[in-house]
Design goal:
The chain is of the alpha+beta class. Helices cover 43% and strands 29% of the residues.
Length: 810
């Protein structure tokens, strides 16, 4: 069964003359329509209930007719009557002035953007009927027709004044909470989300991690500080998230990268879970206190205590503690050993005191009396072991007082100094022997402490100076030194004290009669096994006789120096005469030779027919002798110039000098059909014209002593290297040299003459067969020596010759 709705319509039916003849009944089923109306009514009721329940104000503004409808709550908020006409401008006046312009602009913007049409905003109503402002949240929609023109604007209003106040209170509370966190003296951080994003980090936390807030805030913790993940911090946070249980640890060591350095920080740390209202995890608060200083300090204390125990054990100190009120004493095993007992022996304080030597009991009593007054105990005394042997001890301690400043207890150490005392006694005996020996010496003997303060003079010092010990102590030892020597004396003495170097100085000491005599003073430091100066021991020896002898010797040296200067002047004069002789040799002596050669040539040319064969032979011999004489004079001049010529060195390539030589000897080379080849070239630092003369002599020598059956072939090579790579013992191994090698294919010579060939006037072949004066190679050697170089020769009969030249490279 179901309800069905019908709509009936009754209409009269008339005949042709207008009389009613019946009723026409039509009916239409309107079930769906009626149900729709019922549903709409129901929805309307529900909507009105919802609006009422939500305490919403509603409005409907017809933009075409400019009519404005609103429910009673809307009217009440704006202070309007229930039946009064509403004008939009009237509503705008009731909105807070700070919101009016914004509201108008928002509506205008929506009217332009027909595709959107949704309106949502908040504003404040200034209703004079209310004592406080009302904050409204308004939502609405503007409707547009097909022509995109607005025709209707409706929506709802909600009073959110209380929500706003609550939000402000929450913000204020959160702000206060954040401020409290940021200013908290302990480190606080809040992490949220699965990646533990840092949302809050106070200054104390920033100080611990050593980073700036901008580097870490609102960023995942382990992205910013990856070093924490490998230390298990992430695992601890994960466990708090999963179990919702807090985590705490004390003095947790954490490595943090601070200022690009990985440092260990000790933290009292706890992770506190933060919850939503529904009980789910919202985040984790980390609370930490940096206790690094305390931990490090404790470690240092523990380390120092350990070191102290090690030092005590190593120094073989015995420790003790005495209760001054009960006379109870506690002591270490080493303390017992020092007293001559086995470890573990139990002794009372009186039993311990019985070990003191009777003669030293007063020393101990006085030391304790002073300790009660000053707080510090110190004494040295003898003790007697059970086997009646005597030993020495050194006692040190400190007194502790009660609240009334009365001695309460003492802590101290005791050390066996028997060996030191024996050494001290032995040193005293040696010191006595030293002084006895020093006083018997005629030399002055004196000593000083490490700082240079003279503290002992032997008897000879007092006998010589005529001063007493008090006089020297009062005015100082410097008073016996000559005034002119004092300043330098003090300077050298201070230098020796400062550097530890031996003191050695010659100065004059004043004798008791006022005469000053020269003394040689020397002092050396005496050092312990660690090299630390313990004292200085010095002596002063009278050197007056040596000084007089030295003065006389200096006078003689001065005279000899004057004589040498005169000899040098005479030598320079002689050199000038030699230079004049060389000039005469180069001009005047050669002039007669040139005339002899000229007249001999003319006689041979014009009187040859009148001369016998013997006469012709004599003239030829005379002419040859004159040629040799001229060559000899020229070679001697060249040799002398190698010593006197100005030595101006300049860098030049060896190949360039070789080319100059080839041009100078062009005719001789062509006549002999000789070849000169340069294999490699160094840049050498040489006297240009001398080195060219050297090469000319060597190449000429090769041409002169070439084989008649073989065309001359000469090679000139060079290489740069350290002396160690060359086969020559005379050159320095670590210096750089240019090695020049001149090789020919001539007649050579026997190796035994390799040094003789460089001597003046030395010839290995007859002058009839090979022309020359025997000076050419001597000039070569002299030029090499001018260049601080070395020349050697190697050869064999009919195997050619090789000359090796080694020149320092720049």
């Amino acid at each position: 069964m179901e309800d069905v709705y019908w709509t009936f319509s009754h209409s009269p039916v008339y005949d042709s003359i207008g009389n009613p003849t019946g009723i026409l009944v039509t009916c239409t089923e309107t079930t769906s329509y009626i149900k729709t109306l019922q549903e709409l009514e129901k929805k309307k009721d529900e909507l009105e209930f919802a609006i009422e329940a939500a305490e919403l104000g509603t409005f409907d503004y017809n933009l075409l007719t400019n009519t404005f409808k609103a429910n009673s709550r809307f009217r009440n908020w704006f202070g309007l009557g229930h039946n009064s006409q509403i004008q939009p401008s009237q509503l705008l006046e009731l909105i807070d002035q700070k919101d009016q312009e914004r509201i108008v602009n928002e509506v205008k913007e929506i009217l332009k953007n027909y595709s959107r049409g949704i309106y949502s905003t908040e504003y404040t109503i200034q209703n004079p009927n209310f004592k406080k402002e009302i904050v409204i949240k308004s939502k609405g929609k503007i409707w547009f027709n097909d022509k995109k023109k607005p025709y209707r604007f409706n929506g709802t209003l909600q009073d959110i004044t209380e929500d706003k106040e609550i939000q402000e209170k929450i913000k204020l509370s959160e702000s206060n909470l954040r401020l409290m966190i940021l200013q908290a003296p302990i480190a606080i951080a809040i992490f949220k989300g699965a990646d533990y994003q840092v949302t809050i980090l106070n200054n104390s936390a920033l100080a611990i991690i050593g980073r700036k807030e901008s580097e870490i805030i609102n960023r995942p913790l382990f992205h910013v500080m990856p070093e924490l993940a490998s230390q298990g911090i992430k695992g601890l946070l994960d466990e708090v998230y999963q179990t919702k249980n807090r985590f705490s640890a004390t003095e947790l060591p954490v490595q943090m990268l601070r200022n690009e350095v990985l440092e260990i920080v000790y933290i009292n740390l706890s992770f506190e879970p933060l919850f939503h209202e529904d009980g789910t995890i919202d985040g984790i608060m980390a609370i930490g206190i940096d206790v690094t200083e305390q931990v490090v300090a404790r470690h240092k204390v523990e380390s120092n205590e350990e070191k102290l125990n090690i030092v005590i054990d190593a120094s073989e100190l015995g420790t003790w503690e005495l209760d001054l009120q009960t006379s109870e004493v506690q002591y270490s095993d080493r303390y017992l050993e020092i007293l001559g007992h086995k470890r573990g022996t139990l002794l009372t304080h009186p039993q311990i005191v019985q070990h003191l030597h009777p003669s030293d009991l007063g020393i101990r009593a006085k030391a304790f009396e002073e300790a009660f007054a000053t707080g510090i105990l110190y004494y040295q005394s003898r003790i007697i072991w059970n086997d009646n042997t005597i030993h020495w001890i050194e006692g040190k301690g400190k007194v502790f007082y009660d609240d009334h400043n009365k001695p309460k207890r003492m802590l101290g150490t005791v050390q066996d100094i028997t060996q030191e005392k024996l050494i001290q006694q032995e040193l005293e005996e040696r010191e006595k022997k030293f002084r006895l020996l020093a006083d018997s010496m005629p030399q002055f003997v004196w000593t000083s402490d490490p700082e240079g303060n003279l503290n002992y003079f032997n008897q000879s010092v007092f006998n010589y100076s005529g001063l007493s010990s008090n006089q020297i102590q009062k005015d100082g030892w410097i008073q016996i030194v000559h005034p002119e020597d004092r300043k330098e004396n003090i300077k050298k003495w201070i230098n020796s004290i400062t550097t530890g170097e031996d003191f050695l100085f010659e100065h004059r000491f004043r004798r008791y009669d006022g005469e000053y005599r020269w003394q040689l003073s020397r002092a050396t430091p005496q050092k312990d096994e660690n090299g630390v100066i313990q004292r200085w021991v010095g002596t002063s020896t009278d050197i007056q006789s040596q000084k007089v002898f030295t003065s006389e010797l200096e006078k003689q040296v001065s005279e000899r120096t004057h004589e040498l200067k005169q000899k040098n002047i005479d030598l320079e004069k002689s050199n000038k005469e030699l230079e004049s002789f060389a000039y005469i040799s180069s001009h005047d002596l050669q002039e007669p030779l040139r005339k002899i050669q000229t007249f001999a040539s003319r006689i041979i040319e014009k009187e040859e027919s009148n001369l016998s064969e013997t006469g012709k032979d004599y003239f030829n011999r005379m002419q040859n002798a004159a040629d040799r004489m001229q060559t000899l004079i020229q070679d001697l001049l060249a040799y002398s110039r190698t010593n006197t010529a100005e030595k101006q060195f300049e860098p030049i390539a060896l190949k360039d000098i070789v080319e100059e030589v080839k041009q100078d000897l062009k005719e001789e080379l062509e006549q002999k059909q000789a070849t000169v080849q340069t294999i490699a070239s160094c840049t050498v630092n040489v006297i240009h014209f001398q080195f060219r003369q050297l090469l000319i002599n060597l190449v000429s020598n090769a041409l002169k002593f070439s084989k008649s059956s073989t065309l001359p072939y000469i090679t000139i090579s060079s290489e740069l290297g350290r002396g160690e790579i060359f086969d020559n013992e005379e050159i320095a191994k670590d210096k750089l040299y240019c090695h020049i090698c001149i090789t020919d294919n001539g007649i050579g010579f026997e190796q035994q003459y390799s040094e003789k060939i460089f001597e003046l006037f030395q010839r290995l072949n007859s002058k009839e067969k090979y022309k020359g004066t025997g000076i050419g190679l001597a000039i070569v050697k002299k030029i090499v020596e001018n260049h601080r170089g070395i020349i050697t020769a190697k050869s064999a009969k009919d195997k050619g010759a090789t000359f090796h030249i080694y020149l320092p490279y720049f």
